[in-house]
Structures are given as structure tokens and as C-alpha cells.
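Task card 7
Instruction: Convert sequence to C-alpha cells.
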Amino acid sequence: MTPQAKIFATRSSMKIAQKMADAYGSPLGKVEINEFSDGEFQPSFEETVRGGRVFLVGSTMQPSDNLMELLLMCDAAKRASAKHITVVMPYFGWARQDRKDKSRVPIGAKMVANLLMAAGATRIMTMDLHADQIQGFFEVPVDHVFASSIFVPHIKGQKLEDLTIASPDMGGSKRANNYAKWLESEVVICYKQRKKANVIDKMTVIGEVEGRNVVLIDDMVDTAGTLTKAADMLLAKGAKSVQAYCTHGVLSGKAIERIEKSKLSRLVITDTIPQEHKSEKIEVLSIAELFAGVMHKVHHHESISSHFLEN
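Output:
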């Protein structure tokens, strides 16, 4: 008989973890966080995890305490003799640092992978990595879940005529092409040049958008500079409407202000990152049932290949 899996969460991911636990059919485990006056903290499992599987749910968006808390929980589970420690990271922070793009910089994604494995993670579950090759940074199994299994049906439900899928940059061309294939639509690519991070110098579009309803697809929206500039440019090129689907709503800096002022008709994101922002233009879809289904199959050693669309 397979022992019952237990689900725990970091403080910042408690809301999505509770949704996952409800969908899984298991109560959310109890974790106490002891805080010291200098800001240091210590997680403590308030129930046994010996010999079983634990799912540790925690997105690693800023601040970096979120990553540290997840690492400490991994170490605590390992020292409490958990047999399987599956880290469920809906949003994998530092994923944009997947290579050396100039001299004397770290590969942050690789460092995070090393830290998680050193802390005791025996399996990783995440969604829409910024670069697919990050899976190769781990020496443990990685379940890479895709938001396309949520987004594609949602887009189909709009029954848009003259649909064109667009990537806001060259790096997302593969993702956009796959969405276009599933939706049987045309695809265009926005080409941007940057002088530095989060600052766009020039942008143009490869392909025709005149008279089309355009849906921009990306793995994340951070400052929303690229997204809003792409939307304005596409409309200037003759598009009938522009909306966007982005998995991770980082929404830092003036992102909300930019979205509100832009000509984007709608931005659809998921709840991989807790959303405190309020905007009539932003719609949030939950990934809880998708992850709960994958977690259930992983725990019972069942295939997950038919559970989601691939990017």
C-alpha cells in the first residue's frame, strides 16, 4: 500500500498550496516558522514525515527569503527521514540567469539547482521554465508542467476570428509556434533590441498582423515594458486587437501602471506567484488542479505524459 503523501508550503505560497491540497484531497501539513529578532527564521514540521513522500510547495520570487525558506524546509524534511522530497516550484526564480551572457557573471539558475539538491530535494516540479535546458541543471527528475494546457482551452473558448499568435521576442518563437499549431492560427515574432536589462531600444514585427486578432504568448511578465510596447506596435501595424497570456505574473516596478495605460485589451496570467495587484485588465487562472493531478500521478508512479500539452 502506498503511504499517504503530505503537502507543506512556504509562507508566501500558502494560498496556492491550499488550493493544490484541496484538489489533491489531502489536508495541508502544519509547519511552524520560528523567527528571531534579527530576521533569521527556522521552519519546523509539526507532524511526522518519516519514510513517506512530502511535497514542498514554494515559488521562489523575490525576496530571496522565499528561496531560503524552501531550502530550509528541504533540509528539515531530509533530517526528519522523509523518503521522497518533491519540491513543487510553480515559479522558478533566477531562471533568467541560465547562461553567461557576458564576462564575470554567475549562472544563477544552476546555482539554485545545486542548492535544492544539496538541501535534499529528490524531485522537482515546476511550470514554464524561462529556458527548457534548465532541466539539465538537475541530477534528479524534473517534471516540467506547461501552462499551455490551461491557456489553449481558454483561448479556444473566445472563438476569435482571424487569430494570430505572437511572441514578444525571438526567444519565445518556439512557444508561439506550438500555440499556433494547436490553435491552427498564424504566427508572428516581435524582434527587440535591448541596451540593458528591462530597457528596450528598438522593436519591430516579423510577419503580417493587419486585420488580425493577436494573442501575445510569453513565460512571464515582469516590468511589462516588452509586452506593452509590443501591443502598441502591433496595433499600429493594423492589428484589430491585442491581448496577452503570460504564465508568471511577476509584475514588478511600474508594470501595473504600464498595463493600465497600454492598448492591451487583456492580460491573462496564472497564480504561480501570489497576486495582490488589482486591475480590470488582468485575469488570473489557477494552476492548482493541474499540479494536484501531476502530484497524484507522481506519488502513485503513474505516467504524466498525457496530462499536459508540451511547449
